[in-house]
Amino acid sequence: MRYQLYYWPGIQGRGEFVRLALEDSGTAYDDVARGKGGKASSGLDAMMAMMKGAGEKKPPFAPPFLKSGKIVIAQVANILFYLGPRIGLAPKDEGQRLWLNALQLTVADFVKEVHDTHHPVATGLYYEDQKPEALRYAEGFLDERAPKYFGYFERVIDKSGGPYLLGRKISYTDLSLFQLVEGMRYAFPKAMKTIERKISKVVAVRDRVAERPNIKAYLASERRIAFNENGIFRRYPELDK
Amino acid sequence: MRYQLYYWPGIQGRGEFVRLALEDSGTAYDDVARGKGGKASSGLDAMMAMMKGAGEKKPPFAPPFLKSGKIVIAQVANILFYLGPRIGLAPKDEGQRLWLNALQLTVADFVKEVHDTHHPVATGLYYEDQKPEALRYAEGFLDERAPKYFGYFERVIDKSGGPYLLGRKISYTDLSLFQLVEGMRYAFPKAMKTIERKISKVVAVRDRVAERPNIKAYLASERRIAFNENGIFRRYPELDK
Predict the structure, then answer these.
(1) Is B164 helix (H, G, I), strand (E, B) or coil?
(2) Could you tell me the CATH number of the domain that includes residue A213?
(3) Chain A: residue nearest B55 by CA?
């Protein structure tokens, strides 16, 4: 089975949580809107058309979405819930899958709050138009929210016996945790130094993921887009501390 | 099977999306933290202890969560994904369940943005401490975001052939859509008058849900907590327009 991933070209964004699972498992996929050679724009057009619902009975609200044969699946946690057991990154047991899904949805909540550090007022405005609000937001985010989320994942690894969230076996949410650490290090290098002091098990997951051969190859490839100031994790030094 | 729902007492909040599904389907459940008679505080203590992970190998990050026999399920969309087919409010087909889950996750995204109209800067601060930011946030929310979300659900109903999101059969996300309309009418009565002009199919879902016997009985009962200014949907007239 070859999958088609639809996501904005040029950023890691929310699509990256899906890409990491596809890459780690060596699953074949097309990154449609990025295209190949000169085809990028036609892929992007196709993505926009699907959201508008042209010929699509179940139009997604927003990217990323994944096409698997005839079905289209939107929302990161939903995509990973579907892919997980098929690509060896989730258990098949229902209770375990639901537990993993709850963790992944907590990752999604965290990601939304990261996004809001630079867009606390409106997605439709530029960061430059909401800077005072962003400064206030980022303060509470770095002091309370980020440590709370990471502290939660630390506790989960501790209770599972580690080294991963579910215990001995890696899951797609461990790959997402890698991305959260990488992104936070990029966006808030100073604050992360403090935060990381208390989350050694989370950092150990990050290190293990970084050493996985398929992830290593992916990170070194052109398929891994660099962090930048159009994505979720943005480096605005004035927001860090 | 009797379920135990854990959620903050005193507000509808996110727990309400689960309550509506349990009530509509006539499913037996305990609203643990609200308790019965004098037992409320011990139920709340139990909820807090579960989050702290006392004796719990899989501690939830936040309420609501549902206990079903030995398993504990957190995150609204995840709870409804589990309950749906068991209580007759979701199809059993995998593709349909994933589609419904994507819709429910879009409801969750909408709810988070509603919450942020009164808490754009920090969950840990009072509304009164973030009023200027809330005024700016609410403007974009009412002009763009709320119409965009509702317009999306309108399109989905249209494409399914109606009258519900999935077509002829009601699902748990239709109950959530009812709650979104009710909540928005409570919080932003003026803006909703304008918004509702373009979403007649969404409003028709709201009306159908309101007429269902179990929902009618629930809404008239003491179990339905009134909207108030501690919940997700708050009436602050200065934010409406």
Answers:
(1) strand
(2) 1.20.1050.10
(3) A159
- B224 belongs to a structural domain: no
Sign of the alpha-carbon dihedral angle for B224, B230, B235, B240: negative
Tokens 């042209």, residue located: A54
**Segment B146-187, tens digit of pLDDT:** 999 999 999 999 999 999 999 999 999 999 999 999 999 999
Residues in chain A: 241
Segments forming the whole domain that contains residue A127: 94-239
Report the alpha-carbon distance of residue B136 to residue B34 in Å, rounded: 35
For B200-225, write each residue's pLDDT tens digit.
Answer: 999 999 999 999 999 999 999 999 99
Of B58, B123, B144, nearest to A99 by CB-CB distance is B58
Question: CB of A75 within 8 Å of any CB in chain B?
Answer: yes
Structurally, chain A folds into a number of domains equal to 2
CB proximity B77 to A under 8 Å: yes
- Residue B160: list chain A partners with CB under 8 A: 57
Report which residue type is found at B67.
Answer: K
Q: How far apart are CA A50 and CA A25, in angstroms?
A: 27
